């Protein structure tokens, strides 16, 4: 339990040095393109996700992409890596 708390503190300290402009641009690109598969690891590294948090995100993305209707993938506005196709902004 002490090791886990130490790792959480280390991740928290690493987050303090993140270039917020770079993070903003990565998030914008993620939302614009839906390239979750390519950009999730970048976001996870910048925000210092724990291995469990990254696994949860990857599992959530995969299950959401698998549940997309075929029309959301063939309309040209969504990519197979995107779960944003089911949302309207």
UniProtKB/TrEMBL annotation:
Work out whether the entry's keyword set contains Cytoplasm: yes
Its localization reads:
Cytoplasm; Endomembrane system
Tell whether Lyase is among the UniProt keywords: no
Topology in the lipid bilayer is annotated as: Peripheral membrane protein
The Gene Ontology CC terms held by the record are:
Golgi apparatus
Cite the InterPro entries for this sequence.
Answer: Golgi-autophagy_related (IPR051952), GRIP_dom (IPR000237)
Locate the GRIP domain: which residues? Answer: 13-60
What's a Pfam family this protein contains?
A: GRIP
UniProt keywords (A-Z) are: Coiled coil, Cytoplasm, Membrane
* Full protein name: GRIP domain-containing protein
């Amino acid at each position: 339990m002490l090791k886990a708390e130490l790792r959480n503190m280390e991740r928290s300290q690493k987050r303090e040095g993140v270039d917020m402009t770079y993070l903003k641009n990565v998030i914008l690109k993620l939302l614009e393109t839906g390239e979750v598969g390519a950009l999730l690891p970048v976001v996870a590294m910048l925000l210092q996700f724990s291995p469990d948090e990254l696994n949860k995100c990857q599992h959530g993305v995969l299950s959401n992409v698998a549940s997309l209707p075929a029309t959301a993938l063939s309309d040209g506005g969504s990519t197979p890596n995107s779960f944003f196709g089911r949302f309207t902004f």
